[in-house]
Amino acid sequence: MLQDLKEIIAIDSVYSTPRPNAPFGKKARAALDWFLEKSKAYGFKTGEKDGYCGWAEIGEGNRLIGVVCHLDVVPAGEGWTYPPYCMTVEGGRIYGRGVADDKGALVACMHAMKNILDSGEPLDGRIRIIVGCNEENGSACMKHYVKHCEIPSASIVPDADFPIINSEKGIIHYLAKVPLDKFFKDNILSLGGGVKDNVVPDRAKMTVKKDSPLYMYLKGLSSFDERLFKCEPFVSALLGDGHELKDFALHDGDDGLTIETCGIAGHAMDPEKGDNAIWKLFCLLASVNDTFPSEVAQDIYENICSPLSCEKIGFACSDEQSGDTTCNLGVISMNESTLDLELNIRIPICCDKNSIAPLIKSKLPKDSEVKEMMFSPNLFIDKDSPLIKTLLDVYGKVTGNETYCLKTGGGTYAKELPGAVAFGPTFPGTQTDLHNADENLPVKEFEKLFDIYRAAMLALDKAKL
Length: 465
Known about the structure:
30% helix; 13 helices; 8-stranded antiparallel β-sheet; elongated; 6-stranded mixed β-sheet; 28 strands
């Protein structure tokens, strides 16, 4: 299993420019080809649809059980101790981009299905592993599968947590375009940060124009040491206590003063577990607002760059089935006329989705635009359903652990397929650094996935669902 995992992690299957028969780019296509070729070598029947998705199956008959995984990954980002696309095993853990999301589970499921095939275990129907290539960017792959391919009677999606996820929040990706005010036009040459809306940004950068009013002001707060600002007097003078000096890097170049901020990446389903680098830039801009007023900087800082942003904007709510609203400012970029903000918002069942965009717009300067780029609805399955009961029984028997249902802010393929539920692969209490640097999975837990998913496939094949 480790060799297969090493091979698939080595494929940098991040979304890239669409190509013929590769709608999500060459790298995603390479991962799909790897899956199909490996599955054929293992004796599975295989198929694909237009480069969007593929499958491998065993068994015979009309009844079909699905195991649904994704091959694509989020960008690696910076700050890795280990090479993100070269699997490393150290200290009892496996490191590499995708090992926990979702390539480790996929490999475990492939080997579990191969074991069932090789053992001659009798099946009542077919078991099919279905893979998509666009889960991290809207799941167009699985929408394509549902439209054109066979739908399983029931499916598991190993892309979340154990024991089982019976509630997933709705997810909305917004693009807010905020017109630049005089402050930005006069003082800021460039500003940007983040890689995707569903990742807490760990890097952001702003360049203040050479000899602009803001540049001269900042120069007066710090002493020069050749071409470098000394961070300590700058940060303490501007921001006061509570900000780590290591989070700021400053360089005075030919174009102006470049300020880089450093945070901690994380998943947008739990933005509080990350440390948003974009927020730090706006904290800096807000600190000079008395001298350099900017409605744009102040509105973004006060309403968006805060752990209380849902409350400040006005759409905070919560329910027992799905939890609280969350908001992540994942990407920001500056062009000639606007600041573009990409927000990833997770909503519980009780939330009024249609009210959110107008509320965001009301907290931004006049003439700002807020556009919905993607929406994935809530999912809720009753804990007493046969599917949930069957899988909890498997998990309890294989692990000996307590069984219960969980809710998540994450979104999985379970929303795309009828009769699907997220089941593992992360065990309770395990930290995998999902969407962060040094993504990892304990070796022993990776090996245990084989046992759990093998048992789950066989149980669902026999279950009356």
